[in-house]
Specification:
Blueprint (H helix, E strand, L loop, with lengths): L2 E12 L14 H18 L3 E7 L2 H22 L11 H6 L8 E5 L13 E6 L8 E15 L5 E21 L2 E9 L26 H31 L4 E6 L7 H7 L24 H12 L3 E3 H9 L7 E3 L2 E3 L2 E6 L11 E9 L22 E8 L8
Parallel strand pairs: 1-2, 7-8
Antiparallel strand pairs: 1-14, 2-4, 3-4, 5-6, 6-7, 8-12, 9-12, 10-11, 13-14
Helix pairs in contact: 1-2, 4-5
């Protein structure tokens, strides 16, 4: 295998017909059929080797969409791929038109442990792989030990702590054979920016959710809670990423980050960007003005940071193509990328990687309209996210490097 494609796809609330997922929200039989057909068409267009899905309520609904995609793709093949009687059947253009399908692919689904009764459903994530999996994929959501994030008061005393014992949505970790290596693939869906409000004991709802009695300050605190939870979840993911990198495994991270590339949560996942030179910086335990890191220490620090840093596939594409019109979300006049694919340096030759190189980055976003516009079509049935995909060329196409 010389090439592989890896995609991320937030499907927006995939569940069977006539099932209430959120309060008073469900699909009629006709709406579900329309949505499934639209999703299947997008999967055929992507035709990716590995796909990370978000917002999956039911594995059966996803499997049905994949089957429909295969039916559509195979019908397309009949129309565009010449049969053996044609002398030109091996031409590259026809190989590129061929849909590979998922009849023999592996699917791993991570249900959400917070999933509840009708109207109180919570979605999970999934990974579809034509290359199968090595071992059983891991689901990370209930933490073996609560994560306590301590704070120090600005006056120097105990500032309390923030505790997370369970993630809002699962992280799915799978080991996928690619090229000559096994790549650790993470699929994630971090906490959204929707405010997190506390319902008093015995109350029917949180006071901040009553918009007729609008509480601006209370809702701002809810947004702060959501941001804090999202960053804590990003740190849990970061811990898993670093463990894989330190074990020598190439890593790909994909999913709905609910934040842009430069947000703190995304920077937590990617890791620090190293300074050009640490030898001018005061040491952590400096005793004098000229007590700075040495040149040898600078090189050690540079390597320690770079070895566990991830690279945005979108940013690599923009740098390579001089193109900056990539977006996966549109709302309130803001077009931004909140769906991301990050690559460890194994896939970045400029960072010393020798496993593979990203040749291209695709985004399917023609269906997106500003969700705040009253005439925006497809708001309920199509996805409100663009789909993104990286195209990787493996080492045998990089001069035989390992």
């Amino acid at each position: 295998m010389t090439r592989a494609t890896v995609a991320s796809f937030n499907v927006k609330n995939l569940i069977g017909a006539e099932q209430e997922y959120y309060t008073f929200q469900s699909y009629t039989t006709e709406e579900h059929a329309w949505k499934a057909a639209w999703l299947a068409d997008q999967i055929v267009t992507l035709d990716a080797d590995v796909v990370g899905f978000q917002e999956i309520f039911e594995e059966a609904a996803l499997r049905a969409v994949i089957r429909e995609a295969d039916e559509i793709g195979e019908e397309n093949n009949e129309d565009v791929i010449p049969d053996r009687s044609k002398r030109y059947r091996k031409k590259v253009i026809f190989r590129k038109l061929k849909y590979a399908g998922y009849r023999d692919a592996a699917l791993a689904f991570a249900p959400n442990v917070n999933d509840g009764a009708p109207g109180q459903r919570r979605p999970g994530v999934a990974i579809l792989s034509r290359f199968g999996f090595e071992g059983t994929p891991d689901i990370i959501q209930d933490l073996p030990e609560p994560l306590d994030i301590p704070f120090q008061d600005m006056g120097g005393g105990d500032g309390g702590h923030y505790r997370v014992s369970r993630l809002s949505r699962p992280i799915l970790k799978a080991r996928v054979p690619m090229g000559r290596e096994v790549v650790t693939v993470f699929n994630t869906h971090l906490k959204s920016k929707l405010g997190e409000f506390v319902r008093p004991e015995g109350a029917e709802f949180a006071p901040e959710s009553d918009l007729a009695n609008y509480d601006s300050v209370g809702r701002a605190l809810g947004a702060a809670r959501a941001a804090l939870r999202r960053m804590a979840e990003a740190w849990v993911l970061r811990r898993e990423i670093v463990a894989e990198l330190k074990a020598g495994h190439p890593v790909i991270v994909m999913g709905d980050f609910n934040d842009g590339e430069h947000a703190v949560s995304s920077e937590i996942i990617a890791g620090e960007k190293p300074f050009k030179n640490y030898s001018w910086m005061l040491r952590h335990n400096a005793k004098a003005l000229n007590d700075r890191y040495s040149k040898d220490e600078n090189e050690t620090i540079q390597e320690a940071i770079s070895a566990v840093r991830l690279h945005s596939a979108e940013k690599l594409f923009v740098k390579k193509s001089l193109r900056d019109m990539v977006y996966t979300s549109a709302f309130g006049g803001v077009y931004e990328s909140i769906d991301q694919i990050y690559l460890s340096r194994h896939f970045v030759p400029d960072a010393g990687g020798t496993l593979a190189e990203m040749e291209y980055f695709s985004v399917l976003n023609d269906h997106l309209t500003d969700g705040s516009h009253e005439d925006a079509p497809y708001n309920k049935l199509a996805s409100d996210h663009g789909q993104i995909m990286v195209h990787l060329a493996f080492a045998d196409r990089l001069g035989g490097q390992r």
